[in-house]
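tool_call: predict_structure(chain=1)
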Amino acid sequence: MFWAPDPYNIGGDPRPWLVLAADTIPYAGEEYICAGLTLSDLPDNIEVSDDDWIAGNDPEKTSYCSPWVLATVKHDAVAGTQGYVTTEFTHEIIQRSVEYLTEDSV
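tool_result:
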């Protein structure tokens, strides 16, 4: 995960992004396909539990991932590392994103 500008909130603070694909897309090393993170516990957001974090967790705050908030983030826009989550959590977000894109939502 890293911090980068939020294309949906022009002029706002950067937000953390979960990298879903980096090496398997065109322009590898220059951009990433990401899902947005938030502190909002909204329906369909997926909580990043303590077990999902490998590094970077703030125990004072609960983070959530929004699998429908997808963006291509340019490498030059990355403002800093947030942390790391498990591969299993990342795969869950990828699967949920695919469900939204293919209309196979649970």
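agent: The longest strand covers residues 63-74. Proceeding to next step.
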